Amino acid sequence: LNAYWHRHLIYLFQEKNQAALDDLNFIIKWNKNNADAYLSKAEIYRNQGNNSLAIINCTLAVKCNPTDDYIYFRRAELLEEEEELLLAMDDYAKCFQYNPKRTDALMKHGIHFFEKSVWSIAFQDFTAVIKEDPSNVQARIYRGRTYAKRQQYKNAMEDFSAAVHLDPSNWLAFYCRGCILRKIDPKRALQDFSVSVLLNDSFENLSSFIHRGILYTEQCQWSLAIFDFENALALDRGIVLAYINIGLILLLHLDHYYEAIRQFSKAIEVDPTNVRAYICRAQAYHQLHNLQRALRDINRAIHLFPTESYLYIIRGQYLIEMKEYKLASFCILQVSEMGEVSLKTSPVQQALVRSFCQNHSKAIECLLEVIASQPAPSIFVLLGKIQMKAKKTKDAVESFQQALKILTSSAKILPNTFEAAEIYYFMGLCYMEQVSLLQAYEAFSLAVKVYSNYSDAFYQRGLCRMELKQAKCIQDFNRALAINPKHFQAYLSRAAYYGSKGRYSKAILNCNEAIKIHPDSVRAYLYRGTLKYHNKTYKNAIEDLTKTIDLDKICILAYYNRAICYHQIKDFRKALKDYGILLLLESSKEIVLTVLINRALLYMELEDYSNALEDFKEASLCNPSNSEIYQTIGICYHRLEQFEEAVNSFTQVLKLDPFSLDAYVSRGNSYMEYGHEAGNTQAQKDFLKALHLNPKCVKARICLGYNLQAFGKFQKAWNQFTVAIDIDPKCHIAYDGRAVVCLQMGDTFAAFQDTNAALKLTTSAQLLTNRGVINQFMGHLNCAMKDYQQAISINPGYALAYFNAANIYFHHRQFSQANSYYSKALQLDPRNESAVLNRAITNTLLQNIEEAKEDFEKAICLCPFSAAVYFNRANLYRTLKQYELAEKDISTALSIQPNDALMYKLRADVRGKMGFSEEAIADYKQAISIQEMIDAM
């Protein structure tokens, strides 16, 4: 058996788990009391993710060796992973029982009951740990916190002080001690918070900044207080309290009213329902004598909290100062009516009425009076609910715990009733509000344990598990729906879960069920539409989003998502309409910016660069520090051939981001479009700067190559394209550029090889056309024609391929085919003067006289200074024996291109036909003279 044991260890080292299991099973077959074998099996199953079998093997190991602490600890860890917490805690307790040195087990046991607020057990565990290991800092801190929870502050102080002594670098110990010392010894509390912050100034220790800021405020050290609150805000921009505290210091003590208003406004942005922020801002406006805005903020506060009489009094004061006496008197009447509460109603009824009127504090006072004389679970539950409405979740939790305490005092075991389950449910909601997800999960679990048909508790536990990224959340949603098939929120949450996992079809089915329950739910239609978008069924998504808009005409998300769907299906007109509506609605700055960018990109897709430019300009006003927007503005200017403005935009990009390679390359390309040497020189500087920043920037290399080509420096251009190919052997643009340079240098074979290399990387109409041109240079006209035909098959909209193919047909005197291809080229590119001229010549040869005349007229309109156009039309007129028109055109051609022997000969022929012998002889002589001069050269 020892051999099997050692062999299984070798298998484990070789990661042959099945072979190892086989050996362990053999050992167990002959020795059923081998605890080590069971433990080893458990470890293998745990590594395989099969915790259930691992737990079973640990249990068998326990039976073999019931006093082995290590086995209990391993099983407890497995049970924790399976969320069987009560069983896990039992194992940790047994682990410590059999080995008092295992303080780690007892710590886990104590922390669990501490988080469940079972203070007595937690206290016993931490005390036992400290007894065994007096230097255990974590145990000291937890026991101190337990003492604090039990209001034994002196004992708590001793534990925190001991923790500080044992570990002077523990920030939590200083923080906890500072919290206790806040009222009794503020100076020492400040010291503790300062040390805590010094040790840990991250988000984890945000509360230290807040508490220290409050202490500084109490000591009138305003600048230090503001500094601490600002530090807290740097860690979390969502702390309303910090904004309000800064604002109050500025308002009440430093007289900086405008800055105070700005702080209160930030608080309102974070929490638009914070009454205190509105009241404080109203007071700041009042100090500045801006009564209209002060009144508006007080009205908002009253709207949020209409049962507070002092708000009506403040409003009345402002109205008196504004000389609105009737309205002020109405406010006073409201206050007097609010004070009339019937004495015949019971205190509980009064509390309910006050709570309904949002006067939660008065309602809480009424219930506290009742509790003082008659503490009943139902009263505590009602108090907790009102405290929840008042956002006093910590107080609410304490009220619910008191209710549970009374329920358990009458019976040793908590009764399995809905009343008890509801208490746990409300506690869970409080913990959710406090973002204490593990405690919330425990509370909801206890609720469903006490009352197994509590669908809302299962639903809330599912939400909690979703927040904790636990896949088991879907089981809770399923259980909630099994209990209550009409649970609308459960269907939507299940849809959200499936949507987050990319299972859009299942998510859509859940939305369908939700819509059956609430056919007019905006959320359900909006979410289903969004899911259909992700599922790429855009038309169906549009239907749902349209239904959402029918239900809520100002639903910004519906318009936005529908616009994106229209964009996806290329229905640009409707997409533009929805984007326009979004800009008309009172959207936030972020949404406006996103809409402007999306609409501009849509315009670019439509090649409407003017409108795209306007939207990007507007977007740049919303976000002036975004270099990408200016980069795109530059591209729009470039496409609109406004090259100077493009250069300015790219320069702005470089001001914002001096290391932007794209900006340098784009600005260089815009300089190249200036069409003069100075522009090319500036372009070269930009390309070189880009390469200085990143010598491996292929785009900059290619552009520099084209720039050098424009300067006629073909060898240097060839070098740049070659370097680009070395950097990125799959860059077909570099091969294409080098091919063009090779062709200009007369090396047609090298150009042919480079174009073939580019075509191996990607097949495009442009590259095929380029290879066709090279084949023409090499005299391989059949191969050239094949390339042009293939280019046309790949991209039937590529005009140059038709034009070059037509030239080959013309060369082979296939004039009908040539004429057809020239016509197709002109359909795609009506401003191609060469195609117009060639078609005119073809029509002349085909005797299509009228069509030829029309084409010559078009060619002259497109290129009025082309001698070739006048020369060829003169030939046409000579063929038609219209010698006067022919003589006029050839004379115009000679005025444009005066030293052409062929033109002089043609004019001599025409003049001879017209009977102008002397002029004809003079032209013949001039033609001979020019030809002799050319031959001599």
Helices and strands in order:
Layout: H1 2-13, H2 17-30, H3 35-47, H4 51-64, H5 69-81, H6 85-98, H7 103-115, H8 119-132, H9 137-149, H10 153-166, H11 171-184, H12 186-199, H13 206-218, H14 222-235, H15 240-252, H16 257-270, H17 275-287, H18 291-304, H19 309-321, H20 325-338, H21 347-356, H22 360-373, H23 377-389, H24 393-410, H25 418-433, H26 437-450, H27 455-467, H28 473-483, H29 488-500, H30 504-517, H31 522-534, H32 538-551, H33 556-568, H34 572-584, H35 589-605, H36 609-622, H37 627-639, H38 643-656, H39 661-672, H40 677-693, H41 698-710, H42 714-727, H43 732-744, H44 748-761, H45 765-777, H46 781-794, H47 799-811, H48 815-828, H49 833-845, H50 849-862, H51 867-879, H52 883-896, H53 901-914, H54 917-936
Helix pairs in contact: 1-2, 2-3, 3-4, 4-5, 5-6, 6-7, 7-8, 8-9, 9-10, 9-11, 10-11, 11-12, 12-13, 13-14, 14-15, 15-16, 15-17, 16-17, 17-18, 18-19, 19-20, 21-22, 22-23, 23-24, 24-25, 25-26, 25-27, 26-27, 27-28, 28-29, 29-30, 30-31, 31-32, 31-33, 32-33, 33-34, 34-35, 35-36, 36-37, 37-38, ...
Report what the structure shows.
This is Tetratricopeptide repeat domain 6. It comes from Chelydra serpentina (Snapping turtle). InterPro entries: TPR-like_helical_dom_sf, TPR_2, TPR_rpt, Ycf3. The chain has 937 residues and is mainly alpha-helical. Among the domains are: 1-99, Serine Threonine Protein Phosphatase 5, Tetratricopeptide repeat (Alpha Horseshoe); 486-587, Tetratricopeptide repeat domain (Serine Threonine Protein Phosphatase 5, Tetratricopeptide repeat); 590-694, Tetratricopeptide repeat domain (Serine Threonine Protein Phosphatase 5, Tetratricopeptide repeat). It is 79% helix and 0% strand. The chain contains 54 helices and no strands. The longest helix is centred in the C-terminal third of the chain and has 20 residues, at 917-936. It starts with a helix and ends with a helix. The model is unreliable at 340-345 (pLDDT under 50).
